[in-house]
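FAQ

Q: What does a record look like?
A: Structure on top, sequence underneath. For example:
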């Protein structure tokens, strides 16, 4: 792992964990089996943010951001193994989205379109990703409960 970035090193660690001689637990994970882990780690991050806002203590936030990053890379690794996409695709997608949603910054346009208008246009193009209000509410409640359990 010499000469690589910390990010690349983490991606390689996760690849090794899921390799033939890797960790049995990591190798057994699927997108579905990791849902609760993502909810729990997200809740722990939210709790750490609240601690930071109250006390200025940032150590927990740094650790929990790492745990959420692990989740993202793990899901991307599983997707790569399934032939779906790579972590590079994830990074490219979010980079393009941020540029698209901020034309006033990256394209020199007036800020005539709000972020919400741009997001709504994107959702019309990809309606399958638009969860119903009930689905979003149920997930939000699950995350809120997980946050409450952390505090």
């Amino acid at each position: 792992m010499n000469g690589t970035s910390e990010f690349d090193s983490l991606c390689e660690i996760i690849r090794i964990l899921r390799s033939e001689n890797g960790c049995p637990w990591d190798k057994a994970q699927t997108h579905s089996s990791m849902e609760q882990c993502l909810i729990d780690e997200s809740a722990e991050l939210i709790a750490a943010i609240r601690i930071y806002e109250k006390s200025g203590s940032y150590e927990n936030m740094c650790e929990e951001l790492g745990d959420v990053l692990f989740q993202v890379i793990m899901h991307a690794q599983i997707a790569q193994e399934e032939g779906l996409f790579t972590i590079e695709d994830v990074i490219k997608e979010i980079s393009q989205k941020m540029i698209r949603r901020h034309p006033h910054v990256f394209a020199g346009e007036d800020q005539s379109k709000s972020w919400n208008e741009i997001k709504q246009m994107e959702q019309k193009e990809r309606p399958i990703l638009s969860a119903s209000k009930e689905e979003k509410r149920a997930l939000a409640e699950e995350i809120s409960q997980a946050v409450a359990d952390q505090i």
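Q: Is there anything notable about this one?
A: The chain is about 70% helix and 0% strand.
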